[in-house]
Design a protein that fits this description.
Bound molecules: magnesium ion
Strand order of the largest sheet: 11-10-9-8-7-6-5-12
Order of helices and strands: EHEEEHHHHEHEHEHEHEHEHEHEHEE
Distance between the termini: 21 Å
Radius of gyration: 20 Å
CATH topology of the domain at 145-384: TIM Barrel
CATH superfamily of the domain at 145-384: Enolase-like C-terminal domain
Number of helices: 13
Largest sheet: 8 strands, parallel
CATH architecture of the domain at 145-384: Alpha-Beta Barrel
Structural class: alpha/beta
Length: about 400
């Protein structure tokens, strides 16, 4: 079997929503500048609000075709990766698509100026599409090819990205809604950082206090700083919210500031997670060697694809670290989670924007899953169905 073509397929569609899909945006690194702080635009949005009832969704997929008629497909990262997919096309045409390890290695060795960021998103999408192709060719779900079933169910947390976190009435309403839907864990995003001074700090603390008072002691609360804080601020914030017992505090500083992560981890009493914007085993090794985090969060569509995240997570077990994949809700994320030990990989992310659609939590909301429907979600647990 040989690769005959690599294509980018852009899909757009609409979904019904109840009001703004993104009520507000999360804290961002550029918020140190006032002009950005007041801007409500969120980095990386792949869609737009049409009106109060309709949200337009956009997504590009990488498709790999073969002379045997079988194709592999994977949703890509951000649009900047598309050019890099085209750059890699000539390298891959005519080669055996089942040789995933070889193909990853030559893509990486060829991309000497693109070992991170959008070039690595391109390698990730191609790698994941190759795994999809391999599963289809062999007639097995991908999780059966990378270790087989390691558990029958997986706990999932609800990511609350896009919710208004400045109106405590809304925070209470949404936290209750997600709890009632059956999620035993919820991740919320701070809106304020060091640039918002004492007033913003008080609002951040109020959000965490409100969440704990609303959901009670048995629900896990995770808090994402989206790489937009610094050592002194996080230490101050963490000391004020540790009484509310967050499960973890996430991405406390920009990804290259590993020393800041280490200093924060040394000083706070909340587990520190991070590195969703890090790439490849060599990038993650820097976090591991520095003992900078308790939990690593490689993104299966960014960090190098399934082939690379398997290596990263295996390496993490030798450092006694927990791996919780970013974008675990994707088909490749579910394959990875299902095949990994629940000890170092205890929970997966899910249902990021199921909140204001008024729809039940279903994979069908995702264009890729609508096409393939590999799984279904019942409350907080995901049952994996064979593709045969
Ligand atoms: Mg995050």
């Amino acid at each position: 079997m040989k690769i005959t073509n690599i294509r980018l397929r852009h899909l757009s569609g609409t979904m019904e929503v109840d009001g703004p899909f993104f009520e507000d945006r999360l804290l961002q690194p550029t918020d140190i500048y006032e002009e950005f702080r007041e801007n409500r635009r969120q980095i990386g949005n792949r869609g737009s609000q049409v009106d109060d009832k309709i949200f337009n969704v956009e997504q590009t997929f990488v498709q790999i075709d073969t002379d045997e008629g079988v194709s592999g497909i994977c949703a890509g990262g951000f649009a900047g990766m598309n050019w890099h997919v085209w750059q890699l096309k000539d390298l891959l045409i005519g080669r055996d698509p089942l040789a995933t390890e070889f193909l990853w290695d030559i893509m990486h060795r060829t991309s000497v100026h693109g070992r991170q960021g959008e070039p690595m998103m391109a390698i990730s999408a191609i790698d994941n599409a190759l795994w999809d192709l391999k599963g289809k060719w062999l007639g097995k779900p991908v999780y059966m090819l990378i270790g087989g079933p390691c558990r029958k169910t997986m706990p999932a947390y609800a990511s609350m990205l896009g919710h208004n976190v400045t109106d405590m009435g809304l925070v209470r309403e949404r936290a209750t809604m997600v709890k009632e839907r059956g999620f035993t864990a919820q991740k919320w995003f701070f809106r304020h950082g060091p640039m918002s001074g004492h007033e913003g700090l008080v609002k951040n603390i109020e959000m965490v206090k409100t969440l704990r008072e609303t959901v009670g002691p048995e629900i896990d609360i995770m808090l994402d700083c989206w790489q937009s804080m610094d050592v002194n601020y996080v230490v101050k914030l963490a000391s004020a919210i540790e009484e509310y017992q967050p499960r973890w505090i996430e991405e406390v500083a920009m990804p290259d500031r590993i020393d800041s992560y280490r200093k924060i981890r040394d000083k706070v009493n909340i587990p520190v997670s991070g590195a969703e914007h890090e790439y490849t085993r060599w990038g993650f090794k820097r976090f591991m060697d520095a003992e900078a985090v308790d939990i690593i969060q490689p993104d299966l569509n960014w960090a190098g694809g399934l082939s690379e995240v398997l290596k990263i997570s295996a390496m993490a077990t030798a450092y006694d670290l927990i791996t919780i994949a970013h974008q675990g809700v994707t088909p490749v994320g579910m394959a990875w989670s299902a095949s990994q030990s629940p000890d170092p990989h205890p929970i997966r992310r899910d249902a990021t924007q199921a909140r204001r659609t008024g729809l039940p939590l279903r994979q069908e909301q995702r264009p890729d899953a609508r096409q393939r429907q590999p799984n279904r979600l019942r409350r907080t647990w995901l049952w994996l169905r064979d593709r045969r």
